[in-house]
Amino acid sequence: MSIRCTVESAFFIAWSFLERGGELGPPDTSANIILDAIEAQLKRGERRPLMLANKAIDAHRNLNRQSRTHEASLG
User: Fold this and answer.
1) What is the pTM of this model?
2) How high is the pLDDT of residue 64?
3) Which residues contact 8 (CB under 8 A, 6 or more apart)?
4) Is 27 strand, coil or helix?
5) What tens digit of pLDDT does each residue of 4-43 get?
6) What is the dihedral of CA 13, 15, 16, 17, to 10 degrees?
7) Exposed site from 5, 10, 36, 60, fewest CB < 10 Å?
Protein backbone atom coordinates (compact mmCIF):
# COMPACT_ATOMS: atom_id res chain seq x y z
CA MET A 1 0.00 0.00 0.00
CA SER A 2 1.41 3.43 -0.92
CA ILE A 3 1.95 6.10 1.72
CA ARG A 4 -0.84 8.14 0.17
CA CYS A 5 -3.31 5.26 0.49
CA THR A 6 -2.11 4.57 4.02
CA VAL A 7 -2.67 8.20 5.05
CA GLU A 8 -6.07 8.35 3.37
CA SER A 9 -7.17 5.14 5.04
CA ALA A 10 -5.95 6.18 8.48
CA PHE A 11 -7.53 9.62 8.13
CA PHE A 12 -10.87 8.16 7.05
CA ILE A 13 -10.88 5.71 9.96
CA ALA A 14 -10.08 8.40 12.54
CA TRP A 15 -12.46 10.97 11.05
CA SER A 16 -15.36 8.50 10.83
CA PHE A 17 -14.82 7.26 14.36
CA LEU A 18 -14.71 10.76 15.85
CA GLU A 19 -17.69 11.88 13.78
CA ARG A 20 -19.83 8.90 14.86
CA GLY A 21 -18.96 9.61 18.49
CA GLY A 22 -19.85 13.30 18.22
CA GLU A 23 -16.26 14.26 19.06
CA LEU A 24 -15.19 15.77 15.77
CA GLY A 25 -15.38 19.51 16.44
CA PRO A 26 -14.53 22.16 13.84
CA PRO A 27 -13.62 20.39 10.58
CA ASP A 28 -10.47 22.39 9.79
CA THR A 29 -9.07 22.04 13.30
CA SER A 30 -9.94 18.36 13.51
CA ALA A 31 -8.41 17.62 10.11
CA ASN A 32 -5.17 19.35 11.10
CA ILE A 33 -4.94 17.46 14.41
CA ILE A 34 -5.57 14.12 12.70
CA LEU A 35 -3.11 14.76 9.87
CA ASP A 36 -0.41 16.06 12.22
CA ALA A 37 -0.71 12.95 14.38
CA ILE A 38 -0.57 10.67 11.34
CA GLU A 39 2.46 12.52 9.98
CA ALA A 40 4.29 12.25 13.32
CA GLN A 41 3.72 8.49 13.40
CA LEU A 42 4.81 8.08 9.78
CA LYS A 43 8.08 9.83 10.64
CA ARG A 44 8.60 7.23 13.37
CA GLY A 45 8.14 4.46 10.84
CA GLU A 46 4.57 3.40 11.59
CA ARG A 47 2.75 2.22 8.46
CA ARG A 48 -0.31 0.35 9.78
CA PRO A 49 -3.43 2.41 9.00
CA LEU A 50 -5.35 1.28 12.07
CA MET A 51 -2.47 2.13 14.40
CA LEU A 52 -2.09 5.53 12.70
CA ALA A 53 -5.82 6.16 13.11
CA ASN A 54 -5.83 5.11 16.77
CA LYS A 55 -2.95 7.46 17.57
CA ALA A 56 -4.70 10.28 15.70
CA ILE A 57 -7.90 9.68 17.67
CA ASP A 58 -5.93 9.77 20.93
CA ALA A 59 -4.20 13.00 19.88
CA HIS A 60 -7.54 14.59 18.98
CA ARG A 61 -9.10 13.57 22.29
CA ASN A 62 -6.09 14.77 24.29
CA LEU A 63 -6.04 18.19 22.63
CA ASN A 64 -9.79 18.60 23.12
CA ARG A 65 -9.49 17.55 26.76
CA GLN A 66 -6.70 20.09 27.32
CA SER A 67 -8.73 22.79 25.61
CA ARG A 68 -11.80 22.10 27.77
CA THR A 69 -9.68 22.08 30.93
CA HIS A 70 -8.07 25.40 29.97
CA GLU A 71 -11.46 26.97 29.20
CA ALA A 72 -12.89 25.74 32.51
CA SER A 73 -9.99 27.23 34.44
CA LEU A 74 -10.63 30.60 32.81
CA GLY A 75 -14.18 30.52 34.10
Assistant:
1) 0.87
2) 86
3) none
4) helix
5) 999 999 999 999 999 999 999 999 999 999 999 999 999 9
6) 80
7) 5
